[in-house]
Specification:
By secondary structure, the chain is of the alpha+beta class. It is about 60% helix and about 10% strand. The protein is built from 20 helices and 14 strands. The strands form five sheets. A four-stranded antiparallel β-sheet has the order 1-2-3-5. It starts with a helix and ends in a 6-residue tail after the last helix.
Length: about 550
């Protein structure tokens, strides 16, 4: 039965959904056109998403990175989704630019090339010249795209809420789709606001300045805004144009190694990386590597970078427990987890690849198997880490085509191991160790008070303890004997102390001016003491000779 919470959620979304039924009819028509009710194949799913428009294309692109939620063959198909669409008329581009600046475009640009450099579902890019003669690329957001994508997302959320209300089946699927929609909403908000991409360009350009021979387009913040983005125009050879690179005298093996090391620095050192590192987004000019198109970037916190490094170290060191810790740290639960089974599955994965030569390991295959394990254990990887995994797999494929002899897994593993000995990593580990030590000391200081509080609660009857202790006959005999001797020893000590006190009094009768009762007490204490000592030595002798105690 549906809950009140689900009813309220559906009602609220229905009230906020101001879109007409026209869009719904368009979606239904597309689904009918492709006979979706008769089943879906990965390629048919791609065709349907492209027919439905930019919002659904973006869903497919996000889903391509979520092999922890979707079958691998669908992810591979979605990854090939095309964003190229019919270009906007040049007049519409000029109108958008004028509206964004609030003035005529020629007050900012000397000229704009009418032929677009590229046309995607969200924006279109043109080559232009600034008033000072600088050549730039101008990215212009399509008119109405913000409202269109927001309406589509709102409509899908309404449909999802309705599905949750009318059925309690397929809860995991509905939850996965809800996570996908939330991620879509966040991603589109970032991509539709070019000011966010501008921040990415500024940060990435500053990070690349630290790497020799590596750069990215210089942004122009002063003439960029939410719907128009201006950056340096870059000409060169795309990395996926292998023939042109060879003609230009580029050593492909060295180039592949440089690109990969640059990407590792982005991940481990900067924690800010290019999330779509395919061959078309890397340009070579005068032996300089230029990363372009920062529409998709990923960001990792220091803790996430450490967990990613731990995964590689665990694979190399054949340590499934460390691998499990890292996997649990970079994911969240979407159901019950069998931790014993998870450890066993990761152990099998590590044993399969841990003993192999690094040059024989394919990172895409390892990533795919890891995602399958996480999917089976209801673990959903953090989106930023998923983007990283997809980025590494993408760059591995690109490098494999460019330089087959370059092994990505080997270079990444060696870099991660070297990172473990850097001053930054050692300092971080020292801080972690100090923090753990302080926490342990603090916990130890709390133990006495916690035990006292527990004992008081037991005494008041607020806590009840029930248990059953089973012990062997030998243990019980030993226990009884020990308790008996301890009791006799205590009595002996008591007699001795009591007799000593009596001897200080004038109690009658006396023997040699000593109270007779005190003398008898001393005698009793002496006899009991001797008896305890003798019995203790007898028991020690029997234990050493493995004789049965009685």
């Amino acid at each position: 039965m549906a809950t009140l919470k689900e009813f309220v959620k559906m009602t609220k979304l229905s009230h906020n959904d101001k879109t007409s039924g026209k869009r719904m009819r368009e979606i239904i028509d597309v689904l009918r056109q492709y006979h979706v009710t008769q089943g879906l194949t990965p390629q048919k799913a791609v065709d349907v998403l492209e027919a439905l428009g930019p919002t659904f294309v973006k869903i497919g692109q996000i889903a391509a990175t979520r092999s922890d939620m979707l079958p691998q063959d669908y992810c591979e198909a979605f990854f090939k989704l095309q964003t190229d669409v019919k270009p906007m008329p040049f007049d519409a581009v000029i109108e958008c630019i004028d509206k964004a600046y609030g003035k005529n475009w020629n007050e900012v640009f000397l000229a704009i090339d009418p032929k677009p450099l590229g046309s995607a579902s969200i924006a279109q890019v043109h080559k232009a010249v600034l008033l000072d003669g600088s050549v730039v690329a101008v990215k212009v957001r399509r008119p109405g795209i913000v409202e269109e994508m927001k309406d589509d997302i709102r409509l899908m959320k309404r449909l999802l809420a309705t599905a949750e209300f009318v059925t309690s089946q397929h809860e995991n699927i509905l939850l996965n789709f809800e996570n996908l929609l939330d991620e879509l909403q966040k991603t589109t908000e970032k991509e539709l606001d070019f000011r966010i991409e501008l921040e990415n360009l500024v940060r990435f350009h500053a990070d690349m300045a630290k790497q020799q021979g590596i750069t990215s387009p210089m942004p122009y913040p002063e003439i960029s805004n939410a719907s128009v983005l201006v950056m340096q125009y870059i000409e060169g050879i795309q990395v996926d144009d292998k023939e042109a690179l060879v003609k230009a005298g580029v050593d492909l093996n060295k180039l592949a190694s440089r690109i990969l090391h640059s990407y590792i620095v982005q991940i481990l050192d900067d924690g800010f990386f290019h999330a779509d590192p395919h061959g078309g987004n890397i340009i070579i000019k005068d032996k300089t590597i230029i990363w372009i198109d920062l529409g998709m970037t990923g960001s990792l916190k220091a803790s996430q970078r450490e967990l990613v490094s731990q995964m590689f170290r665990a694979l190399v060191a054949d340590d499934p427990y460390k691998m499990m810790q890292a996997v649990l740290g970079i994911s969240h639960l979407n159901g019950d987890v069998n931790y014993g089974m998870l450890l066993s599955q990761l152990g099998a994965l590590i044993h399969r690849y841990g003993g192999a030569d690094l040059s024989d390991i394919n990172m895409a295959q390892v990533a795919e198997e890891l995602m399958d394990i996480m999917h089976s254990q209801h673990l959903i990887m953090d989106p930023s880490v998923t983007m990283l995994v997809r980025g590494i797999v993408t760059i591995e494929g690109m490098i494999e085509r460019m330089s087959p002899s370059t092994n990505v897994m080997k270079i990444v593993s060696e870099s991660v191991l070297r990172e473990s000995f850097t001053p930054r990593h050692i300092e971080m580990k020292a801080i972690e160790l100090s923090s753990a030590t302080l926490n342990s000391i603090e916990a130890m200081t709390k133990i006495p008070s916690q035990m006292l509080n527990t004992m008081e609660m037991l005494d008041r009857g607020e806590i009840t303890l029930k248990g059953e202790v089973k012990a062997s006959e030998d243990i019980l005999v030993t226990l009884y004997a020990s308790v008996g001797r301890i009791s006799l020893a205590i009595i002996s000590v008591g007699l001795f102390l009591g007799s000593s006190i009596l001897c200080t009094t004038n109690m009658e009768p006396k023997l040699l001016e000593v109270p007779v009762l005190g003398v008898l007490g001393y005698l009793g204490a002496f006899v009991l003491g001797i008896y305890v000592i003798v019995q203790t030595f007898r028991s020690r002798h029997k234990i050493r000779n493995k004789e049965k105690l009685n």
